[in-house]
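User: Let's play a game. I give you a shape written as tokens, and you guess the letters that built it. Ready? Here's round one.
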């Protein structure tokens, strides 16, 4: 029949998989970083053997990469926003929310560097491996800002609570590490303490002035137009007044 407007299709399974994979990857990365900070150095837990802690840390890292891969692959395969595979390794090249997607790419590249050097740890040496391994700690705040700036669930109270828990866990781990640290390395301890204090403030200020304000989708880079013949989801979970996909 003519004159009838076809009903818009709902969000694709890939769209949901991208959101779920990204959220789980952030949670796992937070747990990995917090565990590495809290039990790193010369500290040995009383109720757990050292090798058990190392195995848990390693398994969390592998799971993080697995869900991160799910997040990336489903985002590229989803036809609503055409990202392309280059975006996954070259930061700030996307046409959709380039800055915030670029931060996700930076975090992914940092984690890839950690994984690659861990695979050849005996060849690169302990000192070089440890220097690269610190990149995992740098990847965490970058990934957190990527999620807050790009994620379509940022306005939801549950998602905001998740960000708050992730922040609290890592900050608590940092302060615990500083509390039990011995004398020396004053500059490193001051830098770590200042970072733990500044990141929550910056994220709160960013959320208040950015994703939680009307019009964020447009200011962040806008939603890419669907391809010819594709139908935009009828009612995606709204993170802003313009909707959008991650």
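Assistant: Ready! My guess for every position:
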């Amino acid at each position: 029949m003519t004159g009838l407007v076809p009903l818009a299709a709902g969000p694709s399974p890939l769209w949901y998989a991208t959101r779920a994979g990204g959220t789980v990857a952030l949670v796992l990365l937070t747990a990995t970083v917090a565990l590495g900070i809290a039990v790193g150095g010369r500290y040995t837990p009383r109720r757990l053997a050292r090798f058990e802690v190392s195995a848990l840390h390693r398994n969390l890292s592998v799971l993080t990469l697995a869900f991160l891969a799910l997040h990336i692959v489903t985002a590229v395969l989803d036809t609503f926003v055409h990202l392309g595979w280059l975006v996954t390794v070259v930061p700030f090249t996307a046409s959709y929310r380039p800055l915030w997607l670029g931060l996700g790419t930076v975090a992914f590249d940092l984690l890839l560097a950690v994984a690659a050097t861990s695979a050849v740890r005996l060849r690169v040496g302990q000192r070089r491996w440890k220097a690269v391994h610190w990149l995992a700690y740098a990847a965490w705040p970058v990934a957190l800002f990527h999620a807050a700036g790009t994620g379509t669930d940022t306005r939801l109270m549950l998602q905001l609570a998740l960000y708050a828990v992730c922040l609290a866990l890592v900050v608590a781990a940092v302060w615990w590490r500083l509390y039990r640290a011995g004398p020396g390395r004053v500059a490193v301890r001051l830098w770590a303490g200042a970072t733990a204090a500044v990141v929550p403030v910056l994220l709160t200020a960013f959320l208040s002035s950015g994703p939680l304000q009307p019009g964020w989708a447009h200011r962040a880079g806008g939603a890419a137009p669907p391809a010819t013949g594709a139908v935009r989801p009828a009612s995606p979970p709204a993170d802003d007044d313009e909707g959008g996909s991650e």
